[in-house]
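Example for tutorial group B:
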């Protein structure tokens, strides 16, 4: 089949469009007849375009779309887990993508049935052969069986699990087949409705099959089918049911930075918390939340160093200007983080980091910008300066950032900056 073109469905906002963009991701048209995929601002460099047409291949663009939507989906899920009052129509696109890839590689699921026959061809089942056959003894006292019972395998393509799998493959391809060049028109569309079996019945059947299966591949298939069936409503198709968007991409960017730069799963013990004292009764106020922390001692117990990382989804276009960089309130908050963590982790060197996105025209994935500090501080603590780095957003979304290499780059740049400042102050003071 011909590859399905998607570039005409994509929107690539420029920096000047930043204030006009109301969401990032897959947005359904108001009339629900189609969709648009809106990329983050400044995602692709300008030299990727010619006459407003993107010059990269369709396959590369589809890979970027897939990873962008997965990142937003994970972000939406994390917000649900953090705030139970928030609800999302969470199409399980991780399972959708898995089901499509699995179908392309392996085809439809087929139930394997064991069949036993009395013949010499096939794998002999000795237990059944001995139990169900009379034997003869030759002159050398060897046991002879006139017929063996052999084991064969038969595929049952009409099983209910196969029917549900075909249904899930069709639903998945109807939604996102265009990313994998899979046209749903070429697939069988199995009808599953309340007359075939209730949704509850099918889910119970799949879960029962999951609990008694010992094959990891089958268990993974069943789990992804369960997620799709739990979400999907009978009778609806296509993009009638959902969008995958985030308003300004800040939370997704924070999650991506934590995933690629942090190594502490539970940050709550590190939160600074204000205390009210009213008539001798102390009560906690709200807490401040760090975005991410990297603790070097997790990999090397003797390395007493911590990075407190704050992700800022800002548009920083020019290195000759501070426009697009964090303001004083963000700087002050970061210093509070550093002071709080240093009291909780004594004998540790605590450093503050800002990470902001940028768009690189080459292979550069991360770049040092400079540092910020507060004029109300003596700036004699390691956390008084907030070292700022740019990370290539496209590399971040597409999983091209190597955590250890990036952390080492940040660590080396901070060390260089500290040596430079020490030498500069020494020269200034005539030392």
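The residue assignment follows.
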């Amino acid at each position: 089949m011909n590859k399905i073109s998607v570039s005409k469905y994509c929107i690539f906002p420029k920096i000047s469009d930043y204030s006009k963009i109301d969401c990032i991701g897959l947005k359904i048209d108001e009339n629900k007849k189609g969709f648009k995929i809106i990329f983050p601002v400044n995602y692709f460099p300008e030299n990727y375009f010619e006459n407003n047409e993107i010059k990269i291949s369709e396959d590369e663009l589809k890979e970027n779309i897939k990873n962008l939507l997965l990142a937003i989906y994970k972000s939406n899920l994390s917000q649900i887990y953090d705030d139970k009052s928030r609800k999302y129509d969470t199409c399980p696109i991780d399972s959708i993508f898995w089901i499509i890839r699995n179908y392309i590689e392996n085809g439809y699921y087929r139930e394997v049935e064991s069949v036993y026959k009395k013949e010499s061809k096939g794998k002999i089942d000795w237990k059944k052969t001995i139990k169900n056959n009379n034997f003869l003894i030759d002159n050398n006292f060897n046991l002879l069986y006139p017929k063996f019972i052999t084991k064969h395998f038969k595929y049952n393509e009409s099983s209910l699990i196969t029917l549900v799998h075909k249904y899930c493959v069709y639903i998945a391809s109807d939604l996102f087949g265009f990313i994998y060049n899979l046209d749903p028109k070429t697939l069988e569309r199995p009808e599953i409705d309340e007359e075939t079996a209730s949704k509850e019945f099918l889910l119970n059947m799949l879960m029962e099959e999951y609990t008694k299966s010992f094959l990891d591949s089958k268990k993974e298939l069943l789990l992804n089918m369960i997620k799709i069936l739990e979400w999907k409503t009978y009778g609806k198709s296509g993009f009638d049911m959902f969008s995958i968007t985030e308003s300004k991409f800040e939370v997704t960017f924070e999650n991506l930075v934590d995933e690629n730069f942090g190594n502490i799963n539970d940050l709550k013990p590190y939160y600074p918390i204000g205390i009210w004292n009213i008539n001798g009764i102390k009560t906690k106020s709200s807490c401040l939340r760090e975005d991410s922390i990297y603790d070097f001692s997790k990999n090397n117990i003797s390395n007493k160093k911590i990075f407190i990382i704050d992700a800022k989804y800002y548009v920083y276009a020019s290195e000759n200007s501070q426009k697009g960089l964090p303001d004083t309130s963000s700087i002050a908050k970061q210093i509070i983080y550093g002071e709080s963590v240093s009291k909780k982790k004594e004998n540790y060197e605590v450093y503050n980091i800002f990470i902001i996105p940028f768009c690189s025209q080459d292979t550069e994935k991360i770049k040092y910008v400079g540092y910020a500090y507060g004029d109300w501080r003596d700036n004699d603590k390691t956390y008084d300066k907030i070292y700022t780095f740019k990370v290539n957003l496209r590399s971040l979304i597409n999983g091209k950032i190597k955590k250890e290499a990036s952390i080492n780059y940040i660590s080396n740049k901070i060390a260089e900056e500290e040596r430079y400042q020490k030498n500069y102050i020494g020269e200034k003071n005539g030392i």
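The radius of gyration is 30 Å. Compare this with the pattern of hydrophobic and polar residues in the output above.
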